[in-house]
């Protein structure tokens, strides 16, 4: 039991040190060696938990996304899957763009062609509003949803960052652009999407001080 607890603590220490270095120096300027030095960990220990630096990156984003999911679930009950998706993504962006260092880090990450920091569950929103089955066994439709959604997010987020405006109302506009594209692509109800986006935005405004951070 002690060894297991030590392993958990070691992994968390590596994560904490990596986040601190990423926050200060960015992704490209932070090496695995620097992380190991800060965490007082050997390279073999690092690669045991994270075989590549990008695996660490994936873990950080997945953990951040999960915290957004859990926060929404703990603060509002009985949301349908499509609405829970919108609330979660609104919180995700709302907290992602509140700190210049995190925004700069996120921009670096988006420039990594093989790195996907978006949402693999976009089929939940699309299938929920279109009446299609939500099972991922519909591989062709599911892949189309994910690929189209990821491409839209990447381009609109890069454009958003270039504008240099990160107020909550700017984030609402970013969300509106993304999901209106989805509505057109997949023939969803624009009226319903806009109604749920506004509700998700009001949730973000009410919870903008939530203790959720990427780094």
Describe this structure in words.
There is one protein chain. The protein has ten helices and no strands. It has two domains: about 50 residues, Arc Repressor Mutant, subunit A, CATH 1.10.10.60; about 150 residues. With about 220 residues, it is mostly helical. α4 packs across α5. About 30% of the residues are buried.
User: Which quaternary structure do these chains form?
Assistant: single chain
- Beta-strand level of the residues, as a percent range? under 5%
Main sheet attributes: strand count, strand direction, barrel closure: none
> How many strand elements?
0
Radius of gyration: 18 Å
Question: What is the 3D form?
Answer: globular
* Protein structure class: mainly alpha
Give the averaged pLDDT, no decimals: 87
Number of helical elements: 10
Helix content: over 70%
| Alpha carbon gap, first and last residue | 29 Å
The run of helices and strands is: HHHHHHHHHH
Work out the count of structural domains: 2
Unreliable stretches, pLDDT < 50, 5 or more residues?
Answer: none
């Amino acid at each position: 039991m002690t060894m297991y607890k030590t392993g958990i603590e070691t992994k968390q220490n590596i994560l904490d040190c990596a986040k601190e270095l990423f926050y200060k120096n960015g992704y490209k300027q932070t090496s695995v060696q620097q992380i190991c030095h800060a965490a007082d960990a050997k390279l073999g220990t690092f690669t045991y938990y994270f075989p590549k630096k990008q695996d660490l990156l994936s873990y950080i984003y997945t953990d951040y996304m999960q915290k957004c999911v859990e926060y929404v679930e703990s603060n509002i009950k009985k949301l349908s899957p499509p609405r829970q998706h919108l609330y979660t993504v609104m919180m995700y962006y709302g907290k992602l763009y509140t700190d210049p260092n995190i925004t700069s880090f996120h921009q670096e990450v988006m420039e990594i062609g093989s790195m996907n920091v978006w949402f693999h569950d976009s089929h939940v929103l699309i299938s929920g509003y279109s009446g299609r089955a939500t099972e991922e066994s519909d591989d062709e439709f599911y892949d189309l949803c994910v690929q189209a959604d990821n491409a839209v997010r990447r381009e609109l987020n890069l454009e958003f960052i270039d504008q240099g405006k990160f107020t909550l109302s700017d984030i609402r506009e970013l969300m509106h652009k993304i999901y209106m594209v989805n509505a057109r692509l997949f023939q969803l109800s624009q009226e319903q999407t806009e109604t749920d986006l506004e509700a998700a935005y009001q949730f973000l405004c009410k919870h903008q001080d939530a203790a959720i951070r990427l780094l």
